[in-house]
């Protein structure tokens, strides 16, 4: 399947399914009540296996609402989301979500090892395998030696690494991330962006990441889905033809990066 086919949602004649398919997604809150609010009017796009797709849009465009619909945490009002060919009814096993607020997503009374173990215990992974996987994912996010610490003993960036490790522990095919680096300082943010690019490459996972930061979207993505203001539609799906691996200094200072950034900036501010 070519990139443009994925962007428009076509499948090839051979019928290769995208890993995630969003069709005519519409989401209203408080339907039938005086405070009914249409957050998403009509959004369609597909994500191919192994792709990194970022979603940007003006504040209040419905980015978080959309991500919740993509994860199965919220049901669309109309339209559908398919993950690995199946219509989403609940959060599927092969999908993990990382939210912005690590301080609320980690359990402060559990050590790092035990925080990462939670989804594995829920999934019934045997103790020995659980311990091996915890070591593996903590090592992958550069936290091999803090397993016995508590989250509150770690910096914000380290806590978000724990949240990422926990999301990776049950070996998802797809990672959904909602502003995952918004609560950390600029240098830590760059480190975490590079971390997620490396982990995604090493573990061969598909990523959809919502961000309000256009530079971050261009730096990370293969394609960027730009939402219009609420109630949102897709303003444009922009290909990011920057090579990989990317580098915080050289990629961000390239001419192509600057052109893509300006184009996206115009799209987001004009909607
Ligand atoms: N639980 C809810 N009940 C009612 N309205 C909601 C609810 N959650 C979100 N909304 C409304 O839906 C619209 C989209 O909100 P959402 O948080 O998805 O946007 P966003 O693009 O993520 O915003 P931001 O960039 O500011 O984080 C907003 O007008 C918001 O007030």
TrEMBL record:
Keywords of this entry: ATP-binding, Nucleotide-binding, Transport
Membrane-spanning ranges: none
What InterPro entries does the annotation carry?
Answer: AAA+_ATPase (IPR003593), ABC_transporter-like_ATP-bd (IPR003439), ABC_transporter-like_CS (IPR017871), ABC_transporter_ATP-bind (IPR050166), P-loop_NTPase (IPR027417)
Q: What SUPFAM superfamilies does the entry give?
A: P-loop containing nucleoside triphosphate hydrolases
- Domain of life (superkingdom): Bacteria
Question: Per the record's keyword annotation, is Zinc included, yes or no?
Answer: no
Where in this chain does the record put each ABC transporter domain? Answer: 20-254
Q: Which GO terms describe its molecular function?
A: ATP binding; ATP hydrolysis activity
Q: Which PANTHER family match?
A: ALIPHATIC SULFONATES IMPORT ATP-BINDING PROTEIN SSUB, TAURINE IMPORT ATP-BINDING PROTEIN-RELATED
What protein is this chain from? NitT/TauT family transport system ATP-binding protein
Q: Which organism is it from?
A: Petropleomorpha daqingensis
Q: What is the lineage of its organism?
A: Bacteria, Bacillati, Actinomycetota, Actinomycetes, Geodermatophilales
């Amino acid at each position: 399947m070519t990139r443009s086919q994925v962007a428009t949602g076509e499948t090839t004649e051979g019928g290769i399914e995208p890993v995630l398919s969003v069709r005519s997604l519409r989401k209203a809150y408080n339907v039938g009540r005086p405070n009914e609010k249409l957050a998403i009017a009509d959004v369609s796009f597909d994500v191919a296996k192994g792709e990194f797709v970022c979603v940007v849009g003006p504040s209040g465009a419905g980015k978080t609402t959309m991500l919740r619909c993509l994860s199965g945490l919220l049901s669309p009002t109309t339209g559908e989301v398919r993950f690995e060919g199946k219509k989403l009814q609940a959060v599927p096993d092969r999908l993990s979500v990382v939210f912005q607020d690590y301080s609320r997503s980690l359990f402060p009374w559990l050590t790092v090892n035990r925080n990462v173990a939670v989804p594995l215990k829920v999934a019934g992974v045997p103790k020995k395998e659980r311990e091996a996987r915890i070591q593996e994912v903590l090592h992958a996010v550069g936290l091999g030696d803090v397993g016995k610490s508590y989250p509150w003993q770690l910096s914000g960036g380290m806590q978000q690494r724990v949240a990422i490790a926990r999301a990776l522990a049950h070996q998802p095919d797809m990672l959904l991330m909602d502003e995952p680096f918004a609560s950390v300082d600029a240098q830590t943010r760059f480190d975490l962006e590079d971390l997620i690019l490396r982990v995604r490459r090493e573990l061969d996972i598909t990523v959809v990441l919502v961000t309000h930061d256009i530079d971050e979207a261009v730096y990370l993505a293969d394609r960027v889905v730009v939402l219009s203001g609420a109630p949102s539609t897709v303003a444009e799906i922009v290909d990011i033809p920057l090579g990989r691996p990317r580098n915080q200094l050289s990629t961000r200072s390239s001419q192509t990066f600057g052109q893509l950034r300006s184009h996206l900036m115009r799209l987001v501010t004009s909607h």
